[in-house]
Amino acid sequence: MAATEGSTATATPAAPPEGEPAAPTVIVDDLHVVYRVRGAAGRAGGGGPAALLRALTRRKGAGAREVHAVRGVSFVARRGEAIGLIGSNGSGKSTLLRAVAGLLPPESGRVYTDGQPSLLGVNAALMNDLSGERNVVLGCLAMGMTPAEVRERYDGIVDFSGINDKGDFISLPMRTYSSGMAARLRFAIAAARDHDVLLIDEALATGDRAFRRRSEKRIKELRERAGTVFLVSHSNKSIRDTCDRAIWLERGELVMDGPAGEVVDAYEASTAD
Ligand SMILES: Nc1ncnc2c1ncn2[C@@H]1O[C@H](COP(=O)(O)OP(=O)(O)OP(=O)(O)O)[C@@H](O)[C@H]1O
């Protein structure tokens, strides 16, 4: 197992002896993540949102602010688990995911990952001026597939994305796609490969019902192949249907970690009017 900043080691999935927990894939140990925002000097005084922002931030030098986005989070994720991350806006879900992916350095604490984490976000880089078709090929090559593997999987990826369901859209530039179509294509490309640790940020929320069903099935398959899936979503239904475990964050702190149904119930109870 390797410690972040971003370093990883590939592991061979092995079924644990009966009754023993599966091997850990991600260990997050007292993780703190701080953003430094330049050119955002604070003003003294004021209440409401300004006071909240001051509570979350600390001045550091002229014109610089610190946003302490993840505060002392610890957990262990194991092979075969699908873990939902829930919490209100700005609670630190995406930041935690990016830190697990090795894209944000810890301020303190550690992230250990066994296997290469792959972050699939709605902002994942595809080339807007290239066709969907070219993006599928480039995306697959970037994930390490050979040209022969790309040819073999191309039709399956396009079918999975549903991009061509209503006509030949795959040959059009990505910039002509709706945000939902683009998110579906990103997921379809990423899902074409098995992942040791797959981190999904809201990718499913943009899909229609049929696409969501295909995605949920694929996530189950990935888990069965002994990967670990993290899913950030504001859809409690997606978390219940897809995940067996959930982690609830608020203001960067871990509020609850347990079976998805129980954690989502508690979260819903806390947000009910
Ligand atoms: N690039 C950034 N620079 C500075 N602060 C940031 C940056 N990204 C996020 N933050 C801050 O970090 C905190 C956590 O944000 P994050 O995006 O992780 O929350 P989230 O739970 O994923 O929110 P949402 O549900 O709205 O997507 C927020 O206070 C946010 O303003």
UniProtKB/TrEMBL annotation:
Keywords: ATP-binding, Nucleotide-binding, Transport. Residues 53-272 form the ABC transporter domain. GO terms for cellular component: membrane. The keyword Nucleotide-binding applies. Belongs to the ABC transporter superfamily. PANTHER family: TEICHOIC ACIDS EXPORT ATP-BINDING PROTEIN TAGH. This is Teichoic acid transport system ATP-binding protein. It comes from Nocardiopsis composta. The lineage of its organism: Bacteria, Bacillati, Actinomycetota, Actinomycetes, Streptosporangiales.
